[in-house]
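INSTRUCTION: Work out how this chain folds

Fields: amino acid sequence; protein backbone structure tokens

Chain under study, with its fold:
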Amino acid sequence: MGANESAIDLSIHSLPYATKVYVSQRRPHPRHPTVFNRDGVTVVSTINHLTENEVHLDDGTILNVDTIVFATGYFYTYPFLNKVRPPTDGKRVPGLYQHIFDMYNPNIAFIGVANATLSWLAWEKAAFLVALLWAGKIHLPNIEEQKKWENSRLHLGRHFHILKTPAERVIYFEDLNELAAEYLATDALDDELLRSYPYEWMLALVEGHRVKANFYGIKEPTSNHSEGTETEKADVAKA
């Protein structure tokens, strides 16, 4: 069950060992919609319910399978914090500034909530900022400004914590760097994690679209890829 990278990897790596692989998805992969068009894989509708030995799909189809793997992503949930902050609805964590800093509890921070960034680098930068804040070396904007930032993203709904475009990722990196301006204005000894998002990284990320498509065995129209790549490059340049 699922249609993103985990579902793709599981399906492809299962093919040498499985007689048949079924992929149950609500919608195609946003960047590789034809990735499951291959021998041994059948895309089916969503699951309605399960019985002891059967999978009943929403279109009435009944499948007999040996194993079901859930590659459906995850919800944001922190039940152990419900007494000190508002609970999540699974789609976003309310009351966070820049996807990191808890507006309700200055001694709580969240690392790894922001999605679709250059994950490890963004998370490492976030952890460094949290350390600077708790050490008293930087200060956050006032609570009104923090809430203003949160309100500016509410229209994104379940995509609140997702940075979809290359430009958004570059801007996010710079926004985090700006939070450290107070620290950088001193004789800061360690600024390695507060550097700008190198343009070369973003070009490599855009090029990674083609590399991943080749890895998945997808043949995509050159013209479409070229147009998309140039658009993304221009988007990054504007950022």
Q: What stands out?
A: The first strand starts at residue 21 and ends at 24. Residues 5-63 form one domain. The first helix runs from residue 5 to 14.
